[in-house]
Amino acid sequence: MKAVIIDGYVDEPAILGVPPYVSPYVRYAAGALYYHEIDVDYYTIDQVRDKDLWQSFNHYEYLIIIGGVTVPGHYMGGTPISLTEIDKLFSKNREPLKVLGGSIVKGYTLKGGKAAIPVNPDNVDFIVNGDIEKFLYVYPVSDDYNLNDKSDYDLISKIAPLGAQILKQHPRYPDIIAEMDLSRGCERTNGFCSFCTEPLISGKYRERPLEDLLIEMKAIADVGVKNFRFGRAANFLAYGSKLNNGKPNIPLFQELYSEAVKFAEILHTDNANPAYIIKHKNDIKKLLEIIVKYNTAGDILSFGVESFDENVVRKNRVDIFPEESIEAIRIVNEVGGIRDENGIPKLLPGINLLFGLIGETKETFEINKRYLERIMKEDLLVRRINVRQAMAFPGTLLFKEKPKQHKKEFRKFKEYMESYNHEMLKKVFPMGSILKNVIIEEIRGKISFGRQIGTYPIKTGIIGNFNIFEKTDAIVIDHGARSITALKYPFDINNANINELSAIPGIGKKTAEKIVLSKPITDISKLEIDDTAKRKISFLIKNGSIIKSV
User: Radical SAM core domain: which residues (predicted)?
Assistant: First the structure.
């Protein structure tokens, strides 16, 4: 028997599966099929689009589509599947058993500020409301299946290592990052946020045994993927707390990181509840010290701040108040703000701000601005600030309440964030910072855009023409609002062209032409250019790995 999995990509509060990320869903689904000795082929939805494979799957026994976006996002590595595309795939491939799984079964929308619409059941044999791997584990050998059943970690321990094999079929293999599953559900016991789908999708909070997690990481590393993110957790810092009366589990984290680093070239994380940081300050600082000791620089702990408006926080059952959020940001900066040899901060907070929530007023936008200005004034670093409009899904309080949308104010706030993010990026990635192994993903004219493998990697525009998926090191020279500009590193003035030289701030086209005409250059001080240009050129050549003012 043969099955094909179409990865339509997922993005949820506690999981990301848009390339270069690969979600546990597709790996577990493959593992369940492999367990029953069913051959599996794997395609991303982008491969289907690019190669026009819409009616290429009739010779399979199973056609499985996995997808679902329950938080709004903008993606560089791929575009999540649409309902139209799901219907197209199922209608053009009549022969296989057609199975749909992932959070898309809870509803579909790709745009913030919109309520989700239900999936059309036509052309689908099984819409799996539970966990897709549980259905695929039971159905091939038994009629005793339940489309609402959830997996437990005993099942995951059987199938997860087997599913690692599917990664070799990913079009970007081995330059992908495996989203690792540490826990499911939310550990909060005082209710859930009004908008969050994690309790709907994953149910009651439970934690994966550390030994099983490490076995899967080894299996993934053995197939050639060495990049990992501890992203499949609503609050990563609470991992192991069930074994420690709800408190941070310092010995478990020490074992997790000291073992995981044996398999990893990139080791990053994602979600952290700032309220948990405040509640357990001293223990959390010890956890952060462990992370910073072993992780890869550029790491982020994403905070669900959602709003600095206390009224909005209360009405939406968000777990953190504004002053506590600021304190949590300080704590992560204190421990994680150190930089590696390339000038990249080891671990910084990220902030999620959500609009369209219950109790929001026009003043909410001004309150958020005031708190953001405090962060800037205190010289605190925030790696990224996601500003989004909430998606409303059936089963959430937000879907029931349907609050008023302030679209005009939201647009103005987004404009404000352009200048704010520009200033913050200059602090996080000063001129001279080195980015190793940037993978080119898009070429626009004379600029090649790429990202590193990691958690929310910064979009980097490198002056020059490279090949798609080519890797290069880069040195930062300038900053936008959501991206940075860089030159190939190490910077070689005698091989630099006019486009590269004129991209350096303060060096225009005329100065760049003078430099080119002066080649070969052996002494910067003898160049007939102004002193500011000389200092910048000297800095890039001699001090590329040292962070200092130019």
Answer: 172-423
